[in-house]
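Here's what a typical entry looks like (GFO/IDH/MocA-like oxidoreductase domain-containing protein):
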Amino acid sequence: MSDAAALVAGAEKARTFFAEGLMYLSHPIHHKLLDLLRSGRFGQLRHVQGFYAADIWQVVNPAGGGTLYNLGCYPASLLHLVVQAMCGEDAFANRQLQANGNAGPDGNLRDSAVTVRFDNGVLATLHSTDGYGMAHEFTIATDLGTLRFDSNPWLPTPQGNSFTWTPYEGTPERFVADSGYDAFFHQLQMVEAAMAAGETQAKRPSPRLRDSAEIMQFPTDWQAAATT
C-alpha cells in the first residue's frame, strides 16, 4: 500500500489526470446501476454477494500476486461502489473481515473467500478463484428485494448487459444498457472527456483517487486475513 499511497500523492502533486484501469465501471450499465442505487428506490442495503472465477492461473504473471489481484479486485471494486452509493462516502472503510484460501504451486492464493461486516451492519461475502471455471455472480440484497446481474458485470459487452430487480412483493424488473460498444471504448471516452475538461480525476462510477486507494486496501486486507 505504500506504493499506492506514493502514486496517489504523486498524481495529486503533479495535478495530472489519473484513473485506475477498472474499465468496466465506465460502461453505461454501471451508470444506470449507480443512478438507481442513489435514488433510494431499492431500500436499505443489507447484504452483497459476489463471485468471479476464471481458469487463468497458468497464463497470468505470478508476480501479480494471485487471484485477489487478478480477479478478486473486480467484485471488491463493485462492492465498494454499492456500499458507497447506498451507505455514504465513509462506510466502506469502516469494516471487519475474515478470510480463508488455498495457495497454488507458485505460492499465491489461487482461490479465496472473504466475509465482511461493515460497522453499519451491512454484510458481504466475496469469492475469487483463478484456478477453475469461467463464471460470475453479483447479487445485492436489501430490505425490499434483490438485484442480480444477469450478464457479467466485470466484462460488459456491446449488447446483452442487464440486471434484474426482484422485489419481495411484486413483479421482477429487468434493466438493460446496450450502447453498441464495450467497456474499453467507454473508458477511452471517459478519459478523453475528463482531459478535455481539465479534470484530474475520473467521476463516479469510475474510481476517483480516493476510491482507488480504498479499493486497493481491500484485497490487501483480504490477502492478509487469508494467509495468516
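The two ends are 18 Å apart (CA to CA).

More examples are in the samples folder.
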